[in-house]
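Ligand: 4'-deoxy-4'-aminopyridoxal-5'-phosphate. Inputs:
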Amino acid sequence: MNRPWNFAAGPSTLPLDVLQQVAADLCDYQGSGTSVMEMSHRGKHYSRIRDEAEADLRTLLAVPDDFEVLFMQGGASAQNALVPLNLIGRNGLGRADYVLSGHWAKKSFVEAQRYGDIAVAATAETSQEIDGATYGSWCWLPEQSQWQVRQDAAYLHLCANETIGGIEQPVMPDMAALGAPEVPVVADMSSNILSRHIDFSRLGMVYAGAQKNAGPAGVTLVFVRKDLIGHASAQCPSVFDYAPVAKAQSMFNTPPTFAIYVAGLVFKWLIKQGGVAAMDAASTVKSRTLYQYLDASSLYESRIHPAVRSRMNVPFFLRDETLNAAFLAESEAAGLLALKGHKSVGGMRASLYNAMPLDGVQALITFMKDFEARHG
Ligand code: PMP
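Predicted complex:
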C-alpha cells in the first residue's frame, strides 16, 4: 500500500498497524459476531476493551494511583468549560489563573471567564525582544520564574503544546518556587500527550483530545487528582462532573466506544514501540532534524524562539510567500499531505506526531531541498 505522508495537525495520521487491526476486526470483533460499534458498552467484550485501554494508558504514562483516568466527550474544547465548572469552586473563592501561550491557551482563558475571577499569570501575546532578536505574538514564552500566580487560585491553567503556534512548554512549573505551592496545575496536552514523560507530581490535572497522538476524534482523555474532584458547581451537567464520571468508570452514560477501542489499539502499539520514552526520543530527533534544516536554509524559516519550539507542530515560512501555492501543490503531488499552516498564522506547518516516522520527516526535507533548488 502506497500511503502518502500525512502531516495534518489533527485528526492526524494513525499507525498503519492500528488501522489494519481495525479493518480486520470491523465486522466481527474477535469472533464475537458483531462490530465493536454494535456491542453493549456493558458487555464482556467491551468491558475488556475499556479496562485494557485504561490499564495500558496508566502504564504508558505511569499515572499515579491518586489520579483518576476518565474517558470523556466534548473534546478539549468542552474541558475549557469543564475545568472551571469542576475545579474553580474548590476553595470557595472562584479564582483561577491562566498562562497565555497561544491560540489554544487564550481560548481556554476566554471560556473560563464565564465561570469566575480569571487572571492572566503570564502572556506571550505581544512581541518580545530576546537576545537581540524580536519574536512576534505567540512565538516565545515568558520565563516561568516571571509568572504571577495568586496563592489562593483554585488552579493554574496552561497549554503544554500550542498546536497552531508551535510552542511547547519545556517543563511543568515548580509551583513552590512560584510562591503558590498549593495551586494545582491544569495542563492541556491535546497535542503532545504520550510524546513525553508527564511529571504528575507537578500537576493536578491533564486533559487531551485524542485525535492527535492518541487515536481518533471523539474521546477526550482526562487525568485528575482524586482530591480535586467532588466540588463541581451546581451548574455543571452531571455527565460532565468528574466525580460521578469517575465513580461510574467513565460509563456514566454511553461512552464513545469505537473511539476508545481505537485509542486502546494505539496504546498497545505505543507499548510495542517502546512506550513514551521511545516516543520522546523519536520526537526530539524528528523535530531537531527539521529545525536544523530550516535554520540552515535560505528559503525557509522558523519564527519560534529556539528554546520553546514544539517537537510536535513545526510551523515554518517560505521567505518568498509568493511561492506558497506552488509549495503546497507540489508537496501534495509528491505525497506530502496537509502542510498548509493554520489560517491565523499562515505559511506552512508540519505536525510530527507519534505515528509519523523519521522517514516521513526525511521525505519532507528531501522535497523541500528539491523545491529550494528549483525556486530558491
Ligand atoms: N487544545 C489544543 C492544544 C488543541 O490543539 C485543540 C484542537 N486542535 C483543542 C484544544 C481543541 O480540541 P477539540 O477540537 O478536541 O475540542
